[in-house]
Specification:
Helices cover 69% and strands 0% of the residues. By secondary structure, it is an all-alpha fold. Helix 14 packs across helix 15 and helix 17 packs antiparallel against helix 18.
Length: 358
């Protein structure tokens, strides 16, 4: 019956009937593999060949693989993925795949997608032969995230610890997770040195360290990176941490004109008067200046704030409204004697007039 279908050229139908006809008989299966191969129709057998009960000789599976390699690369890739390497001679298939990847058949040119698929097949085949360095090299060349599964499964971190920047370029999150899990094998300082040309990757790595309450020794680097690439993290970091060089941090913030950060650093360094001047003259935030004086509770600061508000009636009014419990309003009024008339014109119903009418 199968022979009749083959003679009629109905190879797809014949392949579909083989399981019924051949059953567990290995020799019969191998006979028909040879028949299909001689007629250049062996690809029809790909989804029907048994892989156990019976398991055929390696040549039967290799026959299908070779046909797929030269005629249907997606099928070749799928078979390499699902067939166990015990079914065929891996070394022979590697040699054939390399030859094909070199585009040895001009009549069957390869697309970039085909070449990538062949490289993935080679990576799987090298893994089967425990040639991990070659498999890793191919996954790096392909920029393929599968490299992380390979590293985890076979504990290959030592083989890639000098290629951290390449792993980061494939997937920064997975690379950082790998680095954190293998911190005992590769110190954070070494990692940061390896990726020094990639500051955003440095920042991502530092973020993960800091989330784990580690990496405090790199606080100065974190400040520089946050100032350049992620300002919203900078002020919270400055508030939370203590072990950084305030002078260096202040210089960075001054260069970027990050006023809020400068105010905080000046306050922490003890130069509160300069911090107050920034709030008043740079930000024009009398409300923040009042809060700053409250936090520090320093008479000299209050006097400096009073002096700083004298040139602006609006600021004087804000100070009277917001700092009445901390400074003597009469002191403010005395210093503002040349401003009272202007205040009356602008704020005839304001708090100053209410005070004068008492």
């Amino acid at each position: 019956f199968i022979d009749q279908l083959i003679s009629e050229g109905r190879f797809a139908d014949a392949a579909g009937k083989l399981k019924t006809v051949c059953g567990p008989h290995k020799e019969l299966w191998e006979y028909y593999v040879n028949e299909f191969d001689q007629n250049h129709m062996v690809l029809h057998l790909a989804k029907y060949l048994p892989v156990k009960d019976p398991q055929l000789e390696p040549e039967s599976y290799q026959c299908v693989l070779i046909a797929a390699l030269y005629n249907h690369i997606p099928l070749f890739h799928r078979l390499i993925s699902v067939w166990k390497p015990e079914l065929y001679r891996v070394g022979a298939v590697i040699d054939m795949t390399i030859k094909r990847a070199l585009n040895d058949d001009p009549a069957r040119p390869l697309s970039n997608t085909d070449v990538a698929a062949l490289y993935r097949c080679l990576a799987k085949l090298y893994t089967c032969e425990k040639k991990y360095s070659k498999a890793l090299m191919l996954y790096i060349k392909l920029n393929d995230k599968s490299i992380f599964q390979l590293i985890d499964r076979y504990q290959l971190f030592d083989m890639v610890k000098n290629d951290i920047s390449l792993l980061m370029s494939i997937d920064a999150d997975l690379a950082i997770r790998l680095l954190i899990e293998n911190a005992s094998k590769l110190p954070a300082k070494t990692v940061l040195t390896q990726i020094s040309k990639y500051p955003k990757l440095q920042m991502a790595y530092l973020n993960r360290l800091l989330e784990r309450s580690e990496g405090d020794e790199f606080a100065d680097l974190a400040i520089r990176l946050y100032a350049e690439y992620d300002q919203k993290r900078l002020l919270p970091f400055l508030r939370k941490k203590q072990n950084y060089d305030i002078a260096k941090a202040l210089k960075i913030c001054e260069a970027k004109q990050y006023v809020n950060e400068m105010v905080f650093l000046l306050g922490r360094s003890g130069d509160r008067l300069k911090a107050l001047n920034l709030l008043v003259y740079k930000l024009s935030r009398i409300d923040l200046a009042i809060d700053f004086c409250r936090e520090n509770d320093d008479e000299d600061l209050w006097n400096a704030l009073i002096d700083a508000t004298m040139s602006d009636p609006t600021h004087i009014t804000q100070l009277l409204n917001g700092a009445g419990d901390y400074v003597d309003p009469l002191n403010i009024i005395t210093k503002a004697r040349f401003q009272i008339f202007r205040l009356y014109l602008f704020y005839c119903s304001g708090s100053l007039i209410r005070y004068l009418m008492k």
